[in-house]
Amino acid sequence: MNTKPITLKILDVISIILLLTSAYIAIFVAPTEKVMGDVQRVFYFHIGTAWVALVGFVFTAGLSVIYLVTKDLKWDRIQVAAIEVSLVFFLITIILGSIWARPAWNTWWTWDPRLTTAAITELIYIAYFMLRQGIDDPDRRARFGAVYALIGGLSAPITFFAIRLFRTIHPVVIAGSNSEAEGAFSMTPDMLTAFFFALFAFTVIFIDLFWNRIRLENLQDEVEQLKMKVTM
Amino acid sequence: MRKISESHPHPSPYHPRRGLPQGEGTRYLQAISAIVWKDLRAEFRSYELISSMLVFSLLVILIFNFALELDIKTRQSVTAGVLWATFAFAGTLGLNRSMAIEKDRGCLDGLLLAPVDRSAIYFGKFVSNLVFMLIVEAIVLPVYSVLYNTNLFQPGLLIVILLGSIGYTAVGTLLAAMSVQTRTRDVLLPILLFPVAFAVLLAAVKASGGFLDGSDFAEIAFPINLLIAYDIIFISVSFMVFDNIVEE
């Protein structure tokens, strides 16, 4: 029997503690923003999830290349895990952003460049899973998945540039400023603490979920092989 | 002189009678043109693909006419968008069909058996898909111009349409080769293609709109550069990964 490794169990516990601590810091320790009020607190989780999701997506494009070169199904399993976890985190980013946008921009959604790129990126990876669902042969599924993830990973940044043709109102809090941004603010030291803690917490949570997901994929694979043995 | 050619294990590709080098490059180009030629001949016997794409595009324009109420005022701002939406929809129809023909009649297996580099098959299909798309566009443009009394024959706009079509079919050919091998087949292509081709459509709409409005070139230069970059990136990526799509 394949038991859960002890390191992973410990990481699970650490992730939960970090999530709770991060939430505590964001809600009670970080000061209230003057103009926007309490809703600004969503920012810490918004950036935290966006950060890990985007790093995850970039990482998957690299995994595509590794798979296409080595043709080892192990990399395919890792890629599926990374895309799935990133997809969920990115969806959370969009939803949290929406919650913030309602009071700050007075609308849940606007066709702002950042938001549009986010929606398109989300759709690319949903299409990735639809593509995989339509293929039975594991090798072909892995090959097609890798190719599509690579193309998707390349097109997302181009889309980002393309949509810059239209003006943006999304604030740029970290580095650089946008004079047309609505809802921009600068961070106090306490806010920075909450911000960096959230980044750290979500990175650990991402690694934990990623690891669990890879393990699940491996177990699924094992079940498939056992099933094959029984039927043969 | 004679001695040198004897000691050289591989004779020079120069062929004395034809005067043309029969090297790898020429063979590659011959393979591509053979595939394009095959597709064009098959198409000009049946007109299956072009006629369906054409009728479909006209229907899309008709639907847009009533959906957007294309009176003179709105027309000016949405012409570029309507045109590109039409091309994109008609394009998926053609891409799907051209790959489905190969798959259904076992033609793809035959192509794969040919002793040429696999990417030649990609370029062959890409060029023939591009030709079909350009033919349809060449008919839709004057029809649109007449129906809506706008002059679409501006050299700038035609270049944008060419660049946009290249990018769209470059990715489209690759993804169509993928989608015909899945269970859901035709349904999957637009789902795979539209999010990836979003950048090309966006830049094309912006550049076309710029030319139609008569904006400064400085404003149009960025989307055009983006289109060129997109075309180069996606043609080279498709060239590199196509092997993985058709491998058995």
Summary of the model, kept short:
The complex is a heterodimer of chains A (232) and B (248). Chain A is mainly α. Helices cover 76% and strands 0% of the residues of chain A.
Please supply descriptive tags for the structure shown above.
heterodimer, A: 232 residues, mainly alpha, 6 helices, 0% strand, B: 248 residues, disordered N terminus
How would you portray this structure in words?
The complex is a heterodimer of chains A (about 230) and B (about 250). Chain A has six helices and no strands. By secondary structure, chain A is mainly alpha-helical. Chain A has one domain (about 5-25, about 40-170, about 185-230). In chain A, helix 3 (about 75-105) runs antiparallel to helix 6 (about 190-230) and helix 4 (about 115-135) packs antiparallel against helix 5 (about 140-165). The longest helix of chain A has about 45 residues, at about 190-230. With about 250 residues, chain B is mainly alpha-helical. The longest helix of chain B has about 35 residues, at about 70-105. Mean pLDDT of chain B is about 85; it is low at about 1-20.
Reconstruct the topology from this structure.
The complex is a heterodimer of chains A (232) and B (248).
Chain A: H1 6-29, H2 42-70, H3 73-105, H4 113-133, H5 138-163, H6 189-231
Helix pairs in contact in A: 1-6, 2-3, 2-5, 2-6, 3-4, 3-5, 3-6, 4-5
Chain B: H1 2-7, H2 24-46, H3 48-68, H4 72-104, H5 107-113, H6 118-148, H7 155-179, H8 188-213, H9 217-246
